[in-house]
Amino acid sequence: MRCLEQAYAAFRRRSDAVQAANAALELPFFYHENLGNHAAAAGWMARATRLVDEFNLEPLQGRVLLMKACFCSDPDQCETWARQAWQLAIGVEDRDLELCALSQIGAALIDKGRIDEGIPLIDEAMAGALACEGQLDTVVVTTCRMIQSYDRCADFQRVVQWLRAADRFIERYGCPYLNATCRAHYGGVLFATGDWRNAEKELRAALELSGDAIPALRG
Description:
The protein is mostly helical. The protein has helices spanning 2-13, 17-33, 38-54, 61-71, 75-92, 95-111, 115-130, 136-152, 156-165, 167-173, 180-192, 196-209, 215-218. 79% of the residues lie in helices and 0% in strands. The model has no long low-confidence stretch (mean pLDDT 92).
């Protein structure tokens, strides 16, 4: 995170708005999901949005919409922003944005209780991500969204099935559950399905990842 903040500042000094906006767009996710620092996440989200708007960085507008959707507590607004991001992704053939937006739409539908509509979208995004349609980071985002959403609707068996489907990816690239919130959900799923030994391992890993987090998240 320190490197990203330094990179942002360096790109601004070089008047490279595109790379500065790219760096700024990475930071809200880390602050939100790892540290539970919603104020800092909101600040970096606002900074990235201003850069995209001020310099008319049209290719990044979809990412801005997706990030807004990820941090929105209103599922209706979340779905609206995620669908707009998905439509932009289709238009420019951005597979990473398309898959991430699809999983976010599914998550918003599950939050609204429309579980039967949301699950197929998350399943579709997972299939595309694990097939490496996009970059490795897309697997991280879609897997995290899948675990969080299926944990919320208590479909633990579905999580386990997807974890098994991800085995080959994990063997080649390593664990995709790279933030504290996602790792904690993963540990909770393992606990709920009786795999207590691995649940303990993953929950301890979540504690390590959240070492600098605000007390509520770490608790």
